[in-house]
Write a structure and sequence with these properties.
This protein is 3% helix and 36% strand. It is built from two helices and 31 strands. The strands form four sheets. Strands 6, 9, 12, 14, 16, 18, 19, 22, 23, 25, 26, 28 and 29 form a 13-stranded parallel beta sheet that branches. Strands 2, 3, 4, 7, 10, 13, 15, 17, 20, 21, 24 and 27 form a twelve-stranded parallel beta sheet that branches. The longest helix is centred in the first third of the chain and has 7 residues.
C-alpha cells in the first residue's frame, strides 16, 4: 500500500533497463499531449527515434488514436508496445488500448540488432485484402540484417532484395490476414529467415488474396517456418525452407496450398486436407507428417464467432487424440515448442494490470498497484 500526494497515476514503466546497461535510456511515446510530459517523453515515434541513441528502448504507450508518421530506423533500438487483444485477456494491462501504428516502419542500414515488439499494425487501406500486387496499407520493410519482430499484430512485412539480408526473426506474431514477402528489385540472397510460433488467418479464399508467405523475388537460403498455425484460407510459396511442426487447417480442400519444391523439408506437420503434393512436398505418413480429418472442435479449444482471437487456438485436448499433439505429447502449431506464442502479444516488460484506490480522494489517498513482468 502506498501513499500518494494528489498524484494522478498515468503509467508504470520502470526498471526495464538495468543500471549497468551502458547508459541506455527508455524513451516514452504517448500521442496524448497532456500525458506526454516529463523527461524523455514524446508525442510521436519519429521524435523519440530522432532523440534515441543506439541501444535505447522506445516504449509506445497504448492510445485510442493511432500513431502516424512514417519512420526509418537507422540505429539499433528496441521499439515496444503493450500488446494487443488486451481487453480479451485478463490480468494483462490495466489500460486496455494497444499501441496502434498507422505508418510505415523501415529498418535501414545501421539498425542491425533492432527489435520491434508488442505493437498493432493498422492497414491504412479501405479493406483488409492483402497481396503483393494490390496492398495499399502500412508496411514494415526490412533493409538490414539481424532484425527481430516479436509478439505483434501485423498485416505486412517486406524483406527488400536490393542487397543480401541475413537473420530476420518473425516470432509469436498474429496475422489476420497478413503477408510476409520478399519485395523490391535486385538479386539479393535472403538467408536465415525464421518464422516461428505465428498465427496466420485469412478469410479471402481466392488467389492472390490468400497469400500469407510469398517470395516472388530474390534468392532464399536457410529459411525455417516452424510451430505456426495456418487457418482458413492460405497460400505459402517458399524454397530452400524447412517446414516443421506446423498446423495447416484449411476451410476447404482447395483453400490451403503450399508451393512445393525439392529443396524444402517437411517434418512433423499436421493438416486437415492435403495442402501440397509433388516432388519434395508434404506427404502423409512421411517424416511424421499427418493428415487428420477431425472436425474443428477436435483441433482447437473453442469454436464460434470469436475463433479469430488467439486464446482459442490452443489444443483441444491434453492427450494424443488431439491432432495438434503427437505421440510424444509435443504440441504442434503456435503454442508448441520452446518459444510458445504468448496470448495478447505480451512482452517481457513490467506491466500494471490492476489499480485500486479510494473512492474519496483528499490530500493523501491509498492506492494499490499490481504489476508483473509477463
Amino acid at each position: 500500500m502506498y501513499k500518494f500526494h494528489k498524484i494522478i497515476f498515468l503509467t508504470l514503466f520502470s526498471c526495464l533497463m538495468s543500471t549497468g546497461a551502458a547508459q541506455a535510456r527508455t524513451l516514452r511515446v504517448n500521442n496524448v499531449a497532456s500525458l506526454a510530459a516529463g523527461v524523455d517523453v514524446y508525442t510521436t515515434l519519429a521524435a523519440a527515434l530522432a532523440s534515441a541513441a543506439a541501444g535505447d528502448t522506445i516504449h509506445i504507450e497504448g492510445s485510442v488514436t493511432p500513431y502516424t508518421g512514417n519512420i526509418t530506423v537507422d540505429k539499433r533500438v528496441v521499439i515496444i508496445g503493450p500488446g494487443y487483444f488486451l481487453s480479451s485477456t485478463p490480468e494483462t494491462q490495466f489500460y486496455k488500448e494497444s499501441a496502434k501504428i498507422d505508418l510505415d516502419i523501415t529498418f535501414d542500414s545501421g539498425s542491425e540488432g533492432s527489435v520491434l515488439a508488442g505493437i498493432e499494425q493498422r492497414t491504412g487501406a479501405s479493406d483488409y485484402q492483402i497481396n503483393t500486387a494490390a496492398y495499399a496499407g502500412n508496411r514494415i520493410i526490412i533493409r538490414a540484417n539481424n532484425i527481430s519482430i516479436i509478439s505483434s499484430k501485423l498485416f505486412y512485412i517486406g524483406i527488400d532484395v536490393a542487397a543480401n539480408r541475413n537473420n530476420t526473426t518473425i516470432q509469436k506474431c498474429f496475422f489476420n490476414p497478413g503477408l510476409i514477402t520478399t519485395m523490391g528489385s535486385g538479386s539479393g540472397v535472403i538467408s536465415n529467415v525464421t518464422i516461428s510460433n505465428c498465427f496466420f488467418r485469412n478469410d479471402f479464399a481466392t488467389a492472390p488474396a490468400r497469400m500469407v508467405i510469398n517470395t516472388p523475388v530474390g534468392t532464399l537460403s536457410g529459411w525455417r517456418i516452424s510451430q505456426c498455425t495456418f487457418f482458413n484460407s492460405f497460400a505459402v510459396a517458399a524454397v530452400n525452407t524447412t517446414f516443421a511442426n506446423n498446423v495447416f487447417f484449411a476451410s476447404a480442400a482447395a483453400a490451403g496450398t503450399i508451393t512445393t519444391h525439392a529443396t524444402n523439408d517437411y517434418v512433423n506437420n499436421v493438416m486437415n486436407f492435403i495442402v501440397a503434393t509433388g516432388a519434395g512436398g508434404i506427404v502423409d505418413g512421411v517424416d511424421n507428417n499427418q493428415l487428420r480429418a477431425e472436425g474443428i472442435a477436435s483441433w482447437f479449444s473453442r469454436v464460434g464467432n470469436n475463433e479469430a482471437i488467439d486464446i482459442y487456438f490452443t489444443a483441444a485436448s491434453a492427450t494424443s487424440a488431439c491432432p495438434l499433439i503427437d505421440a510424444a505429447n509435443a504440441q504442434r502449431g503456435m503454442y508448441g515448442g520452446m518459444q510458445s506464442y504468448v496470448e495478447s502479444g505480451m512482452f517481457t516488460i513490467p506491466s500494471v494490470y490492476d489499480i485500486q484506490m479510494d473512492t474519496e480522494v483528499g490530500d493523501t489517498f491509498d492506492m494499490t498497484i499490481r504489476a508483473r513482468t509477463h
